[in-house]
Amino acid sequence: MDPYAKPNERKVGAQRPKVSHLPSEIDKRTRSERRAEKHTVAAERRAIKKAARQRLKKQMRDQLKEESNYQESRKQGKTRGEDIMD
């Protein structure tokens, strides 16, 4: 804390006023409970994003594998229909 700060500038860090958007009669959660809920939501979002990335990566691998199989079959002189029949 700056010792030469003006009175309004001293309300920083742990001394800062806490903002409450709901009255305490409605919201009975403690700060740690709100923080835990926030971390839970963030973890769920990370899990969703991770699953989406994995799914897209798998789709890309499958698509590349399919294209490479198609190119190999073209080198061998087969058409798509013949490749499927083998």
Short description:
With 86 residues, the chain is mainly alpha-helical. It has 2 helices and no strands. The protein has a domain of 49 residues.
Keywords:
86 residues, mainly alpha, 2 helices, elongated
3D structure, described in words:
The protein starts with 30 loop residues before the first helix and ends with a helix. The chain is elongated. The model has no long low-confidence stretch (mean pLDDT 82). The longest helix is centred in the middle third of the chain and has 45 residues, at 31-75. It has a domain at 29-77. It is mainly alpha-helical. It has 2 helices and no strands.
Mean model confidence by pLDDT: 82
Helix content estimate: 55-70%
* Termini Cα gap: 77 Å
SS content category: mainly alpha
- Provide the β-strand percentage band: under 5%
Element-by-element helix/strand order: HH
Low-confidence stretches: none
Largest sheet composition: none
Number of strands: 0
For the CA atoms, what is the radius of gyration? 29 Å
So what's the overall shape? elongated
Helix run count: 2
SSE topology sketch:
Blueprint (H helix, E strand, L loop, with lengths): L30 H45 L4 H6 L1
